[in-house]
Amino acid sequence: MKKTLSLISGLLMAATMFGAEAQDQLTLAMSTPGPDTYADGSPVLAGETYLLVYVKQGAVFGGVQTDGSLVDPLNNVIVTRGQAVEGAKCGYKAIQYPAATYPEGGSWVIVLLDTRKADGTLGGLVAAQGVSGANGAVSALSLGAAGGSDAEGISAAGRAPSPAGTPPPVIAAVQVGDGRVNLRIKNFSDTALYEVQSATSLNGGWQTVASRVQATTQSIVQGDAGAELRTDVPAVGTVRFFKVIAQ
Question: pTM of the prediction?
Answer without folding.
Answer: 0.81
